Amino acid sequence: MKSKGITVKGIPYMTGAHVYNEVYLDDVHIPSKYIVGQENEGWAVVNVLAGFERSNIDIVMGLVRGLEEIVEFCNANNLSKDPLIRNRLGDIACSIEAVRTLSYYVADQQNRNEMGLMDAAAVKIFSSELLEKYAQIQSDILGPFGIVKSSPWAKMRGTAEYNYQACFVPIVSMGTNEIQRNIIAWYGLGLPRMK
C-alpha cells in the first residue's frame, strides 16, 4: 500500500462512518516475488477474497443481536402484545435464522476450501436485503423517536437512525446485488451470459 502510484480516498457514509475506500492504482509496479497465486490468475484470487467478504457473518450476527434488542424494547414498552408487531418480528426472526444457517454453511465451506461463488453471493443478497428490512421494521416500531440520534430521547441508543441511513451500503458494496444475481445465474445455475 506504500508503493508509488497508489491513492486511497475514503468514502464516508451519510452517518459519518468511514468503512470503505476508493483505491486507485496508477502505473503501480510490484516485484514479482509478491505475486499471490499463479501469474495471470489474479481474478481467481479476487473471487476467493470476495467470497469471504460476501459471506457477511458480521451483518448476520448484527441482525441476530438487533432482533434481541428490538424484542427487549417491545417487551419493556408493552408493544409485544400488538399482533402486527408480533407478526413482523416473527417474520424477520425466521428470515434471520435462515440467513444465519446459510452463513454458517458458507463458513463451513470456506473452512474446507470448498466455497462456491454462488453460495457467498446468496448470503450477500439475503443478508443485505434483510438488513434493509430490519431497519424499516425498527424505524416503524420506534416511530418518530426512532429517527433521533444520540440524545436523551433516542430509543435504543439511536441505532434505528444509524441503521436506516446505513442499511443500503451492503446492497451496493462487494458487488451490487444485481451482480450477485448474475453470479448465481452463471456459476450456480449454468445460465448463459447476456450478449
Overview of this protein structure:
The chain is mainly α. The chain has helices spanning 42-54, 57-76, 83-111, 117-142, 159-166, 169-172, 177-188; strands spanning 6-12, 18-25. Strands 1-2 form a two-stranded antiparallel ribbon. A hairpin with a 5-residue loop joins β1 (6-12) and β2. α2 packs parallel to α4. The longest helix is centred in the middle third of the chain and has 29 residues, at 83-111. The protein is globular.
The span between the termini is 37 Å
Q: Please identify, by name, the CATH architecture.
A: Up-down Bundle
CATH superfamily membership: Butyryl-CoA Dehydrogenase, subunit A, domain 3
- Identify low-pLDDT runs: none
The count of helical stretches stands at: 7
Give a count of the beta strands, DSSP E runs of length 2 or more.
Answer: 2
Mean pLDDT: 89
User: What's the CATH class, please?
Assistant: Mainly Alpha
Helix content: 55-70%
| Biggest sheet strand line-up | 1-2
Task: Indicate how many domains the architecture comprises.
Answer: 1
At the fold tier of CATH, the topology name is Butyryl-CoA Dehydrogenase, subunit A, domain 3
Q: Biggest sheet, in brief? A: 2 strands, antiparallel
Q: Which term fits the overall shape?
A: globular
Strand content: 5-15%
- Given helix and strand content, the structural type is mainly alpha
Alpha-carbon Rg, integer:
20 Å
